[in-house]
């Protein structure tokens, strides 16, 4: 990882505007913000795999070499695009309670992933450190300000929710992509899956799975929102127990 003179990773320094911007170049109007916006347009249209320095340069109406005056590498560009795309979290009602706050926070996070699925494909280069990543972290922590939980526990809960939301959104996007490729609906795909399992599953070998199949639970797709709510509620139930245990301790 490349570091600047202050010991800050180069990509993080760029995200925080800590790096000296280049002087006026040969392309009037070219800026770091414009380059990032061009990268986001490419990713939104054709996916993260289509993002290259040359493609983004063309989208920005500049030469590839001109981009390198502002962005040192593609990985740095992806980091800047991700931070710009996630933006600031929506304000939470401080009087709504920790559970309502974390619920709203998790839903907002999920919605931004589903709205901009390419963000899920940006490689994770380290713990959150860009401005908007830290804004989301701060918002999640603030929702638990009145719980009495230790700071270590709060950070672990934010990390757990982040991983859950990201994974659930990734699966939802992948499932939708697969279903669209088949030219069918999610209900049709799940019905076909249930029929396939009925052919494959031997009750003697997979008795518990056979009982689940026989119940008809796999005959249709569950509402993706209901699945998300179920998992989120179980996590928050656990947070509630932790709060009670700490209060009793």
Quick structural gist:
This protein is an all-alpha fold and 249 residues long. The chain is built from eleven helices and no strands. This is TetR family transcriptional regulator.
Topology:
Elements: H1 10-15, H2 32-46, H3 53-60, H4 64-67, H5 74-86, H6 98-115, H7 131-142, H8 151-182, H9 186-200, H10 207-214, H11 224-248
Helix pairs in contact: 2-3, 2-5, 6-8, 6-11, 8-11
Helix run count:
11
How many strands appear in the DSSP assignment?
0
Which word captures the global form? Answer: flat
Report the biggest beta sheet as strand number plus sense, adding barrel if it closes.
Answer: none
- Uncertain residue segments: none
Order of helices and strands: HHHHHHHHHHH
Secondary structure: helix percent: 55-70%
- Structural category is mainly alpha
Distance N terminus to C terminus?
Answer: 43 Å
Radius of gyration (CA) equals 23 Å
Mean pLDDT across every amino acid position: 90
Strand content: under 5%
């Amino acid at each position: 990882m490349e570091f600047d003179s202050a010991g800050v990773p180069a990509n993080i320094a760029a995200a925080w505007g800590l790096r000296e911007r280049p002087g006026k170049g040969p392309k009037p109007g070219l800026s770091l913000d414009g380059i990032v916006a061009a990268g986001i347009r490419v990713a939104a249209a054709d996916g993260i795999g289509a993002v290259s320095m040359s493609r983004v340069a063309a989208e920005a109406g500049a030469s590839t070499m001109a981009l390198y005056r502002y962005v040192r590498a593609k990985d740095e560009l992806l980091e800047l695009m991700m931070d710009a795309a996630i933006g600031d979290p929506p304000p939470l009602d401080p009087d709504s309670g920790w559970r309502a706050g974390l619920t709203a926070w998790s839903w907002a996070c999920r919605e931004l992933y589903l709205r901009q699925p390419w963000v899920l494909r940006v490689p994770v280069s380290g713990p959150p450190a860009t401005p908007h990543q830290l804004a989301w972290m701060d918002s999640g922590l603030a929702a638990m300000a009145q719980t009495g939980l230790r700071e270590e526990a709060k950070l672990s809960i934010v990390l757990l929710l982040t991983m859950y939301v990201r994974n659930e959104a990734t699966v939802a996007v992948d499932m939708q992509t697969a279903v669209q490729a088949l030219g069918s609906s999610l209900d049709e795909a799940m019905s076909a899956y249930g029929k396939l399992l009925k052919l494959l599953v031997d009750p003697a070998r997979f008795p518990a799975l056979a009982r689940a199949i026989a119940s008809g639970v796999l005959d249709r797709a569950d509402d993706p929102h209901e699945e998300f709510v179920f998992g989120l509620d179980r996590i928050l139930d656990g947070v509630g127990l932790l709060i009670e245990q700490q209060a009793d301790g």
